[in-house]
Design brief:
Radius of gyration: 23 Å
Distance between the termini: 74 Å
Largest sheet: none
Oligomer: single chain
Strand content: under 5%
CATH superfamily of the largest domain: Homeodomain-like
Order of helices and strands: HHHH
Number of helices: 4
CATH topology of the largest domain: Arc Repressor Mutant, subunit A
CATH class of the largest domain: Mainly Alpha
Number of strands: 0
Shape: rod-shaped
Number of domains: 2
Structural class: mainly alpha
Length: 99
């Protein structure tokens, strides 16, 4: 019996949810895992696909990977701003020390 990391399980469930036309069997084949394993993960996550009347659109919550990417992009922006401030401060103080 294989042990899969929790992140892999969450990503597999998110992949299944993001593809409304794909079956559990198709997604499992793509991931090279047993369909019953994926079905158990989907049930455990309580992740059913959104259903609605014809023509209704749903805004899906971001997958864990998308949320992590957004957080990392935000952190990169913050670090770039900090670097720019430090660069300007260094330039200012370097100019101040020259007579």
């Amino acid at each position: 019996m294989k042990n899969y990391p929790p992140q892999f399980k969450a990503d597999a469930v998110a992949l299944y949810r993001s593809r409304p036309d794909a079956t559990i069997r198709q997604v499992a084949a793509h991931l090279e895992i047993n369909p019953e394993t994926l079905q158990n993960w989907v049930r455990a996550a309580g992740a059913s696909r959104p259903r609605g009347r014809r023509g209704e659109t749903f805004v899906e919550p971001p997958t864990p990977l998308e949320a992590q990417n957004a957080a990392l992009r935000k952190r990169v922006r913050e670090l770039e701003e900090e670097r720019e401030i430090l660069r300007k401060a260094a330039k200012y103080f370097a100019g101040e020390t020259r007579w």
